[in-house]
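One example given next:
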Amino acid sequence: MRISSPERVLFPEPGITKREVAEYLIAVGEAFVAANGGRPVSLQRFSSGIEGEQFFSKNPPKGAPEYVRSVPVTYPSGRVHPQLVIDEPAAAVWAAQMNTVVFHPWASRADAPDLPDQLRIDLDPQPGTDVADAVVAAHALREVLREAGLEPFVKTSGNRGLHVFAPILAEHEFLDVRHAVIAAARELERRMPEQVTTAWWKEERGERIFVDFNQANRDRTIAGAYSPRPLAHAPVSTPLDWDELDGVDPRAFTIRTVPARLAERGDPWARMHDASGRLDALLGWWERDVAAGLGELPFPPDFPKMPGEPPRVQPSRAKKV
């Protein structure tokens, strides 16, 4: 594939060009496609580099090559629209030609877009916390998920946080998976209430790790494994073995360092979908919590009002009313 403007600088600080991004995707192509391929995906594009304007592409533009396909997906509004699918490394390189920096895959596959086959939990450090705090939370979350019969995998977010994924059988809709994530998050919060929180409103989180349950919703995506992130040092959201987690420095994983790491160590997520589990235990915990008076949590602001959802009013403003 011909890359137009190959010397265009996308990451000014290290001087990483569009050509280098394409070469990176070729180098990690097999692992990248294993993690993100065959799924609806959004492309986060930067036509003049990460310090310039950005926009998202969801459907293939006119003139896309034949190996770039789409699948109809239903958005929270009920609207159905075609969404890009990447099936091979060449499609990822084509996306780089389109100035893509970040790839955002759905938690479901293109052949069953309404049925997630991944449970995803975003551990988001709040002010006053850092990645070391997220590591402690991730180890505890691993135990929670294992007790629920799932096998978790971990990666850096590409920034300060961590992403914990667990492969699941594609037999539940997004709302059920959201409830399973909330159940796991609440159990984690019970075990370490001073370290983690499920509080949706920032003013209530304090100096804790936020367990972002809303990333489990339909059309909510997390940067894919091996995807670059639009930060100055060109970081990559990088899968790790659990025994690498203590003392991890996410800044060490970049477009320039990850290919050699992958070649040397292999892909820690290579066996992920050999370990798919069921949500029965987590959904049982959800029902237990509902019976105890713990119900639905707020949805993202762009979602329609959902059944059982509490008011979408910032607590400090609600008190004034």
User: Anything to note?
Assistant: The two ends are 59 Å apart (CA to CA). The longest strand covers residues 118-125. The longest helix spans residues 174-191. The chain is about 25% helix and 20% strand.
